[in-house]
Specification:
single chain, about 130 residues, alpha+beta, 60s Ribosomal Protein L30, Chain: A, 6-stranded mixed β-sheet, 2 helices, 6 strands
């Protein structure tokens, strides 16, 4: 199988040597998204909840560009500069996902790009076309 590079203007452009996502077969590997507004490439806000919502919006745009939707994600890795914000992540995530939820990890980190408080990456499994 060959790899297909996924790119959309509805999510922030890559700010380094990576693709927004890479698709192999029906599996899509999503690069980390931070809370940048796609049109300005600036942080949406300093407010953590607004940052979390923007990250899920960005991930959703990449999922759609790959031919799926956020609900098709099977694994989510959440990177936080402050793990005490995790309850807010759960609240925000509940707005974007319904059961069954994806597998998930939460990782505390010292710093994220552009001063972001949250970054999320993951794996998407597209519905079978058979």
């Amino acid at each position: 199988m060959s790899k297909v590079i996924i790119a959309t203007e509805k999510a922030p452009a890559a700010i380094g040597t990576y693709s927004q996502a890479v698709k192999i077969g029906t599996t899509v590997y999503l690069s980390g998204q931070i809370p940048l507004k796609p049109d300005t490439m600036e942080l949406v806000s300093e407010d953590f909840a607004q940052q979390a919502e923007q990250v899920f919006k960005n991930l959703s745009a990449v999922c759609e560009a790959a031919g799926g939707e956020l609900q098709d994600m099977v694994k989510v890795q959440i990177y936080l500069t402050d793990l005490s914000e995790f309850a807010i992540v759960n609240e925000v995530m509940a707005k974007f996902f319904r059961t069954p939820y994806p597998a998930r990890a939460a990782i505390g980190v010292k710093q994220l790009p552009k001063g972001s408080q949250i970054e999320i990456d993951g794996i998407l499994e597209l519905p079978s076309t058979n």
